[in-house]
Amino acid sequence: MEEKRILFVSSEVVPYLAENEVSSMSYDVPKMINDQGGQIRIFMPRYGNINERRHQLHEVIRLSGMNLVVNDLDMPLIIKVASIPKERIQVYFIDNDEYFKRKATFADEEGVMYPDNDERAIFFAKGVVETVKKLNWVPDIIHVHGWLASMLPVYMKHYYKNEALFANTKIVTSVYSQSFDETLNLEMINKVKFDGIPEEAISDLEIPNYENIIKAAVKHSDAVIIASENVSPSLTKFIESSEKPFLPFTPKEKFAEIYTDFYKTKVL
User: Fold this and answer.
1) What is the pLDDT of residues 196-241, one digit of tens each?
2) Containing H/E element for 47?
3) Sign of the CA dihedral 258, 213, 129, 80?
4) CA nearest to 201, candidates 239, 151, 158, 246
């Protein structure tokens, strides 16, 4: 993978958040590509429970300052950056006080999902793409991890479809086991349609539960990786019948060689 550019977009990454299957793979896969001589960038939200002082986050003024429109509201975009110690891996954090200042990731202390998680996902997707455009850094592959990042494939294939910068960029989505049981705001489909995305392309979002959000991401990806042993049978069947190149679940100790081969033979 030497000299290849891969943009990793994840809802969770260690060491900034607790270890789980999404946050761990969102560190291990970029590290593997970095070790092979590939060029990587990682993007994640800057949740309020990330310790900025400990992890030495700092704002990048030249990238911050633009406003993103979410459902007809202007939302300021703040970009922060940090480096993973010893790895020379830069992580960019998408921040906005309204969406990400609260001291948790997806739910409050009672375990109730935030009612604006749909808007947070839209803001995150737009924030990543707008920042990459400002960096003028052209990825060969965008690899998406975690449901909060799942709007990125949708926006890339519609909202940003005419961006010459991404003309040859391929999108890979890793699918993990179900991480919430609730349904997001039922207005989500209308908020995405507000950005000119056709209803027939996002019909799954009429009921924005975990499985349907992932289905929307899969439909708009160029390839799919089943990244968990516990992906539901219905979602697995959907992926297998999607006619997209897909990689079945690979145990962590074997993923490096198999993921690299998948990138090279099925994606690039």
Assistant:
1) 999 999 999 999 999 999 999 999 999 999 999 999 999 999 999 9
2) none
3) negative
4) 158
Residue 267 DSSP label: I
Burial per residue of 164-180, b for 16 or more beta-carbon CB atoms within 10 angstroms, e otherwise: eebeebbbbbbbbbebe
Q: Hey, what's the torsion of the CAs at 37, 256, 170, 243, to 10 degrees?
A: 160
Q: What are the structure tokens assigned to 4, written together?
A: 């290849």
Q: How many angstroms separate the CA atoms of 42 and 113, rounded?
A: 25
Helix (H, G, I), strand (E, B) or coil at 123: helix
Q: Give the three-state DSSP class for 91.
A: strand
Query: Collapsing DSSP states into helix, strand and coil, what is residue 264?
Result: helix
With cut-offs at 50, 70 and 90, classify the pLDDT of residue 95. very high
Cβ(90)–Cβ(41) below 8 Å: yes
Q: Which of 214, 174, 173, 220 is nearest to 201 (CA)?
A: 220
Q: Rounded to an integer, what distance in angstroms lies between the CA atom of residue 77 and that of residue 79?
A: 7
Tell me how far CA of residue 229 lies from CA of 177, 232, 236, 251, in angstroms. 7, 9, 10, 9
**What is the percent of the chain where pLDDT is above 70?**
100
